[in-house]
UniProtKB/TrEMBL annotation:
It comes from Anopheles melas. Coiled coil: none annotated. This is Methionine synthase reductase. Signal peptide: none annotated. GO terms for molecular function: [methionine synthase] reductase (NADPH) activity; flavin adenine dinucleotide binding; FMN binding. CDD domains: methionine_synthase_red (cd06203). The keyword Oxidoreductase applies.
Length: 373
């Protein structure tokens, strides 16, 4: 890559909605037959909004298929304004009333339980209310832009190429970008061979720079959460081999996990190579499906090594990095860290939680929540 990036930075990959899901929406809108016909998109008159304008990501001339494939996020969690708009074009009175309740202030508890807790997106709701026929103009108004998906760079300093990692899970849910990447690899003739992307720094910042070399680092990354740390360690290896530094490089711990060590232990050989090269001091791996594994989850490693880990974490020269699935996994790991701090230092758990929160504010603790793409 010609642009400068740091270990832990990411790329944003431009993606497409799944063809099957786009066809479903087109069918519900009675647009399948005209899906590939080009239309002009313009503001309806009269317009109630002050200074109205079309979204900049919607082309002036576009086909319904392209609009739903490339421009609009049809997997977005529906906000109340969208639900209210959907109610206005729903024929069945019971379905219409449900949408109106979900969109109301009084229906907030139901919205939280039904939509947020179950992670329902626009498609889920559309399938649930069978008589809803939203016009395409309404979707342009209420659906946000289909955003590029971030993927951590799993390399550093390699001329003309970078690496990323992604996982395909057999749980019935298909990420639109991981599906695209898998399809490009397995069926290259059916897809554009190019991948459209740009360099993207994660926010909050989650990277490793020259000034961090002297620090101790604790890297925690279950599953694909280990990905950015490969770049960290390649950077440390390059710094060590070509360095004229007089100061000592800080120690590095890595805690990661997989299901089975013999089949999906990501970067196993490279991590062992980093150990041999002296740029990774401690490596602990949990495997949830191996019967003879000492540790099932990263939390087990933290609990077992809590005295050493907490003492290292409390050192002023240490930074903590936590990367992984953010909805359930990372909060559990963070809670384990707080519990161990409380036990080792005999402090109330609330005080330990406040201290870790302070570490996030000061940049001593960096946290990156990965989402399904």
């Amino acid at each position: 890559m010609e642009e400068e990036y740091f270990p832990g930075d990411a790329i944003g990959i431009l993606t497409y909605n799944l063809a099957s899901e786009v066809d479903y929406v087109l069918d519900r809108l009675h647009l399948l037959e005209s899906a590939d016909q080009t239309y002009e998109v313009k503001l309806a008159k009269p317009v109630k909004k002050k200074n109205p304008e079309l979204p900049h990501y919607v082309p002036k001339y576009v086909t319904p298929r392209r609009l739903l494939s490339e421009c609009l996020d049809i997997r977005i969690t529906p906000r109340k304004g969208l639900l209210q708009a959907m109610a206005s074009c729903t024929a069945d009175e019971c379905e219409k009333r449900l949408l109106e309740i979900l969109a109301s202030k009084e229906g907030s508890n139901l919205y939280n339980e039904l939509i947020l807790k179950n992670e329902m997106n626009f498609l889920h709701v559309l399938k649930y209310v069978a008589t809803c026929r939203p016009p395409l103009a309404m979707l342009i108004e209420h659906l946000p832009r289909l955003q590029a998906r971030p993927y951590s760079i799993a390399s550093y300093g390699r001329e003309n190429h970078i690496r990323i990692a992604f996982a395909m899970l057999n749980d019935g849910q298909v990420g639109i970008t991981t599906h695209m990447l898998e399809s490009k690899l397995l069926h290259p003739g059916k897809w554009d061979k190019y991948l459209y992307m740009y360099l993207r720094q994660l926010k909050p910042v989650f990277n490793y720079r020259e000034e961090d070399l002297e620090r101790n680092i604790i890297m925690i990354g279950p599953g694909t959460g280990v990905t950015p740390y490969i770049g960290f360690l390649e950077y440390r290896k390059q710094a060590k081999s070509g360095s004229t530094r007089k100061t000592k490089m800080g120690s590095a711990w890595l805690l990661t996990s997989c299901r089975y060590q013999d089949r999906n232990y990501l970067y196993e050989h490279e991590l062992k190579g980093f150990m041999q090269a002296g740029v990774l001091d401690r490596l602990h791996v949990a495997s949830s499906r191996d019967e003879d594994s000492q540790y099932k989850y990263v939390q087990d490693i933290i609990e077992d090594r809590k005295e050493e880990l907490v003492e290292l974490l409390l050192d002023d020269a240490t930074k903590l990095y936590l990367c992984g699935e953010g909805r359930t996994m990372l909060p559990r790991i963070q809670d384990t860290i707080v519990t161990c701090m409380s036990k080792v230092k005999s402090m109330p758990k609330s005080e330990a939680a406040d201290l870790l929160a302070e570490y996030r504010k000061t940049g001593k603790y960096l946290y990156y929540s990965m989402i399904r793409h």
